[in-house]
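Known limitations

Structure tokens in this collection are predictions and should be treated as such. Users comparing against experimental data should check residue numbering before alignment. To illustrate the layout, the record for Ribose-phosphate pyrophosphokinase is reproduced below. The input appears on top and the generated tokens appear beneath it.
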Amino acid sequence: MSHQEPEAKIFACSQSVHLAEQIAKHYGIPLGKATFSKFSDGEFQPSFEESIRGLRVFIVCSTFPTADNLMELLLMIDAAKRASARHITPVIPYFGYARQDRKDKPRVPIGAKLVAKLLETAGATRIMTMDLHADQIQGFFEKPVDHLFASTIFLPYVKELNLEHLTIASPDMGGSKRAYAYSKFLNSDVVICYKQRKEANVVGTMELIGDVKGKNVVLVDDMIDTGGTLTKAADLMIEKGALSVRAICTHAILSGKAYEKIEDSKLLELIVTDSIPLKKESKKIKVVSCAPLFADVMHMVQHNNSISSKFLM
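Generated tokens:
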């Protein structure tokens, strides 16, 4: 009797069900059944409603606030470990706490490192994520990390726009490496914004390094939170003579007055992935799904195939 390798199973935390369903659909299997019991005080308990013994289990969960999302993922990993799953891969399209990747002042935590330890302690055997705030976060893990780039889905979109005088821009110095990678692929110029923050989420002053006059600009960033930096950069570029300004941001956190800022800004379009579900629709926001990318890579991981073809940059 030939031994057939068991197919993987895909499960979702409660806030990432829609994305997980899309991933499972592209993968070609139904989403696994899991339930979440809630106690009256708000505590919850996940439960796998089908056998996962000896299988590879993918648990899809973006760890955006509240912290319940991260706790849910940890409990599901622990449940999978205790249910004898062979491989447990948390699929974390948006890796929360990634902005806390170093001590930028005394007496603060390194949150990204703590989350990495928590995931491994819970029982994760491999991590899959996309566009980490800092690439070095991969080094916080002792387990393999598949770090996917959303550029594989954004670059074809930008190419289809067929923009003349295209210029790629980074809204800050930290994102210059990402901007250069995009510009190399698209054979375009690069401009960088230099900003000084008054405090977290508040931009003080902003200067432009490079020329945008007569250019169609595409700003590239890994996330958009309050939208302050991007909208300020877009307005500054139009002021400096840019023909149009679009923005590409992998993770649409969009907290506070972000939606209003985007609507009121000179941004023509904001292109994001569905790593975080949008709180509301906006005519300026275009969502490009990351589900096919994750499904393809999960398939490759399950069948021990190389995933390097999925990296455009």
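For this record: The longest helix spans residues 68-82. The domain at 8-148 is CATH 3.40.50.2020 (Rossmann fold). Please report discrepancies through the issue tracker.
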